[in-house]
Amino acid sequence: MVAIVTGGAKGIGRAIVEMLAKKGIRVVLNYRNSEKQAQGVKEELKNQGYEVEICKADVSKREEVQKLIEFTHKIFGEIDILVNNAGIDKWQLFTDITDEEWNEMISNNLNSVFYMSQEAVKDMIKNKTGCIINISSIWGITGASCEVAYSVTKAAIDGLTKSLAKELAPSGIRVNSVAPGIIMTDMNKKFSKDEIGEINDQIPLGKFGKPEDIAKCVSWLVEDEYTTGQVISPNGGWVI
Asked: pLDDT of 93-145, one tens digit each?
């Protein structure tokens, strides 16, 4: 089996790449700016005997998505699994969001999922099997103050997931979203020790999640054959 993981060089994406590779899946790790980290993941996994290749592409652009698909076909021949993980975040007041910032968020977080899914699904329809997993967010479910643009994109991803799951089910293709709660990644290292403590107090399990927690959920969705159109939120009980 062959998987593409977008934004796979760091954090949740890296954990997903590692877990899928260790299941014997051949993985194309996509990155945009983090070449050093991507190369490090590739070398580490290849030294352990796993098949991982890396490909630089800005998945917010259709032409670069097509190059990523072509690269995957050239190296591995087909696409069975797509994990749409790439995305950006920005904390700001709603009244401060510029047109450029809004469009940048839509392009990176939502258009990328549209482009990648539309291109990758061609192989899956032909083969009558496949799995698409979109990494959304708890904020797509509940909304977040001062993260309106981000929350909108993640809610839209969940809507895309449900609609696409219905459309592709007759072709044997499963589509699901994983909507993490607060995970200790570079994106969330901005919090101070006191802020982390305050957040932990709001989470019933009393702690941030780890990238590996999300990777385990993705791994299960790859294996499961009867789950589609679902938004699964590993969030420590923060939202129940």
From this structure: 999 999 999 999 999 999 999 999 999 999 999 999 999 999 999 999 999 99
Selecting among 31, 50, 150, 226, the annotated active-site residue is 150
Residue 175 has pLDDT above 90, yes or no: yes
- Dist. CA 8–CA 6, nearest whole Å: 5
Is 150 annotated as catalytic? Answer: yes
Query: What pLDDT does residue 198 have?
Result: 87
CB 178 within 8 A of CB 234: yes
Residue 83 phi/psi, 5-degree rounding, is -115, 110
Q: Which two tokens stand for residue 82?
A: 């797509």
Burial of residue 115, with CB atoms counted within 10 A of its CB: 0-12 exposed, 13-18 middle, 19 or more buried: buried
Show Cβ contacts of residue 71 under 8 Å, excluding neighbours closer than 6 positions: 28, 53, 55, 57
Angle made by CA atoms 23, 49, 42, in degrees to the nearest 5? 85
